[in-house]
TrEMBL record:
The lineage of its organism: Eukaryota, Viridiplantae, Streptophyta, Embryophyta, Tracheophyta. It catalyses: L-leucine + 2-oxoglutarate = 4-methyl-2-oxopentanoate + L-glutamate; L-valine + 2-oxoglutarate = 3-methyl-2-oxobutanoate + L-glutamate; L-isoleucine + 2-oxoglutarate = (S)-3-methyl-2-oxopentanoate + L-glutamate. GO terms for cellular component: chloroplast. GO terms for molecular function: L-isoleucine-2-oxoglutarate transaminase activity; L-leucine-2-oxoglutarate transaminase activity; L-valine-2-oxoglutarate transaminase activity. Its cofactor is pyridoxal 5'-phosphate. This is Branched-chain-amino-acid aminotransferase. It holds the Pfam family Aminotran_4. PANTHER family: AMINO ACID AMINOTRANSFERASE, BRANCHED-CHAIN-AMINO-ACID AMINOTRANSFERASE 3, CHLOROPLASTIC-RELATED. Gene3D superfamilies: 3.30.470.10, D-amino Acid Aminotransferase, subunit A, domain 2. The modification N6-(pyridoxal phosphate)lysine is found at residue 261.
Length: 415
């Protein structure tokens, strides 16, 4: 792409720098001060730091490649000034968020970056009153060579579309979703942790922002993406977590919404989770609500057991969230010759298991050190990762972070 063409199309003021004021409010309904990006390409002239003030990012979205062109020969953008050794899984405000609205015909268009900040919303919005919304979660990693990697973003897009169908919402196309994620990550690239220090967590939201009073789908929807640099999800880091099997509360029911990432599923598990945490457990392991006998999953991650080198995980049948990490681990394990079974896994099998681990974008792969069921505690591994869990963890994270050859073709390189 011709740099002059990029430069002539945009001016420094096209993107407003965020105000850090606590009262900063961004009106979703007023985009007038910001220029729309053409849907298939992004050109940003940024950023506030002196080192990268001439950096021009030109991003033609294609399957696996976005190019960053810089006026100097280096791709290095100055990193945000935070203590990268101390980041946990909490929200840190970044520079930009992305918003795209849909009209009554259900078509999303004219999405754009805007300064990260509060949004204005009608008190009668369907999301606030009836929980009509979905979220997604994915991560961007910074490679040693400065390139940025996304992991299977189309999978998140497809899952959001499936969830939207369940929740009676229109949703962005896969291409719109991936372009929006790419745009948001590139605009916030100074917030992507250095290699080995963590990742940039990307949180897409799809919500009914139109006003309703009687129960009905909203007349208007907003797709929004914000990002935050993150470290480990569990305070244990990669040390094993301790779970307790939940006997009273359930997160999902047959015919319900457990299989989609709708926001209401999560407020509903806070009670069980906080009771477990107060007792010193990291999280709760749910059983099926009909027989109270089959393993389902943890509040926000999927579960696997390993017995005699055979890997088993509960099959997807509506009450379990179809994790992209789950699916990827299954494929990686099979490619390494492991037998992987997706089936009903009974709570009794916890007694015999050699290893247990959880998977999810946030937790990646977390070894389970113990599971308590009806006052009985089953322990796994000596003190840390089991052999199979460790092998799978290393394979997946190397791939996600660009440390190994991506022979699965799962990563998308942004710059
Ligand atoms: C998001 C989520 C997962 C993990 O899904 P990934 O795509 O691997 O991040 C598992 N269980 C629940 C309940 C979730 O919300």
């Amino acid at each position: 792409m011709e740099r002059s063409a990029v430069a002539s199309g945009f001016h420094q003021n096209d993107i407003l720098y965020p105000s850090r004021a606590a009262t900063s409010t961004t009106r979703l309904h007023s985009f007038s001060s910001l220029r729309n990006f053409p849907s298939s390409s992004l050109r940003i002239r940024q950023s506030p730091s002196p080192v990268s003030s001439n950096l021009i990012i030109s991003c033609e979205i294609s399957r696996n490649r976005c190019d960053a062109v810089s006026s100097s020969s280096t791709h290095v953008t100055e990193l945000a000034e935070i203590d990268w050794d101390k980041i946990d899984f909490g929200l840190k405000p970044t520079d930009y968020m992305y918003a795209m609205k849909c009209s009554r015909d259900g078509e999303f268009s004219q999405g754009q970056l805007q300064p990260f900040g509060n949004i204005e919303i009608n008190p009668s919005a369907a999301v606030l009153n009836y929980g009509q919304a979905l979220f997604e979660g994915l991560k961007a990693y910074r490679k040693q060579d400065g390139n940025i990697l996304l992991f299977r973003p189309e999978e998140n897009a497809i899952r959001m579309r499936n969830g939207a169908e369940r929740m009676c919402m229109p949703s962005p196309t896969v291409q719109q979703f991936v372009e929006a994620v790419t745009t948001t990550v590139l605009a916030n690239q100074r917030w992507i942790p250095p290699p080995g220090k963590g990742s940039l967590y990307i949180r897409p939201l799809l919500m009914g922002t139109g006003a309703v009073l009687g129960l009905a789908p909203a007349p208007e929807y907003t797709f929004l993406i914000f990002v935050s640099p993150v470290g480990n999800y569990f305070k244990e880091g990669v040390a094993p977590i301790n779970l307790i099997v939940e006997n009273e509360f359930h997160r999902a029911t047959p015919g319900g919404t457990g299989g989609v990432k709708t926001i209401g599923n999560y407020a509903a598990v806070l009670k069980a989770q906080s009771i477990a945490k107060a007792k010193g457990y990291s999280d709760v392991l749910y059983l099926d609500c009909v027989h109270k006998r089959y393993l389902e999953e943890v509040s926000s991650c999927n579960i696997f057991i390993v017995k005699d080198n055979v890997i088993s995980t509960p099959e997807i049948k509506g009450t379990i969230l179809p994790g992209i990490t789950r699916k990827s681990i299954i494929e990686v394990a099979r490619s390494q010759g492991f037998k992987v079974e997706e089936r009903n896994v009974t709570v009794d099998e916890l007694v015999e298991a050699d290893e247990v681990f959880c998977t999810g974008t946030a937790v990646v792969l977390s070894p389970v050190g113990s599971i308590t069921y009806k006052s009985q505690r089953f322990s796994y591994g000596e003190d840390g990762f089991g052999t199979v869990s460790k092998q799978l963890y290393t394979s997946l994270t190397s791939l996600q972070m660009g440390l190994s050859e991506d022979n699965m073709n799962w990563t998308v390189q942004l710059s």
